[in-house]
Amino acid sequence: MKRTKQLFFILLVTQCFSLAGWGQTVKKTAFEKGSFYFYWGWNRAYYSPSTLHFMGNNYDFTMYDVVAVDRQSPFSADLYLNPKRMTIPQYNFRIGYYFKNDLQISIGVDHMKYVMLHDQPTTMNGYIYNSGTSYDGVYNDQDFTISQDFLKFEHTDGLNYINSELRKSISLYSRKYFQTTFLFGGGLGMMLPKTNTTLLNNPRYDAFHISGYGVDGLAALQLNFFKYFFIQGECKVGFIHMPDIRTTMNASDKASQMFIYNQFNVNFGAQFPVTKKK
């Protein structure tokens, strides 16, 4: 958690100091005004501990410092490169447009996966009544172990961050068939998770639902080949707040959480002009 906060602070400070150069002219790059691009890639995500608050007709309880991890799919060409299955792993998809030589606007999807660890210790406050389980009772800062028969909580289909970003490009090195570019920026968007939840005696629930919002900042290094193709590595840090997570078939049952995430991405893309040069 401390490391994630430090990364978040460093990235934000870097961007704040860089804002002074947003109006400066950069030397010619492959990405010029009127260029369109798209990319596809994969991510690794890390999450800070979060506070989980569950609310329903016969329960209202909060668990603190709950730990979760992402879920990486083992590599296979049939999974990662097959168009019918390539949305199963954690992926990033983005399309963008350069409205200035060094400024771009884009929309994209960051498909992460979030898996709460079972049998982890936590502290719990609140109450549970008439659940038909041994968990009925009142909890006052009570030590508690989150067993799987009590709660399964995953955003595995997934933790979907649909966002718009503004990015700036700075050319670092440029030759005829190869260019290196540094990018930084930030964005915001909505959270559309498909949350896989089994809570107490309730049936498993797994459906898409707009649950909240996210904001992010990022820095990236792009290697451009033959003008039209590129590989891009990204470090993204963001904040997610989801106050309306569906947990059961009953619409009155919901959960809320907020956390910081750190995402490392490798993307493969292409760009091309869509407007004629004057």
Output the number of helix runs: 2
Rounded average pLDDT: 89
**Total number of domains:** 1
Second-tier CATH architecture: Beta Barrel
Name the poorly predicted regions.
Answer: 12-28
Rough outline: elongated
Q: What's the gist of this structure?
A:
With 278 residues, this protein is mainly β. The chain is built from two helices and 15 strands. Helices cover 8% and strands 62% of the residues.
Which tags fit this structure?
mainly beta, 8-stranded antiparallel beta barrel, elongated
Q: Topology, pairings included?
A:
Blueprint: H1 2-18, E1 35-47, E2 50-56, E3 59-66, E4 68-69, H2 77-80, E5 91-100, E6 103-116, E7 120-128, E8 137-146, E9 151-174, E10 178-191, E11 194-199, E12 205-208, E13 212-225, E14 229-246, E15 254-273
Antiparallel strand pairs: 1-5, 1-15, 2-3, 2-15, 3-7, 4-6, 5-6, 6-9, 7-8, 9-10, 9-11, 10-13, 11-12, 13-14, 14-15
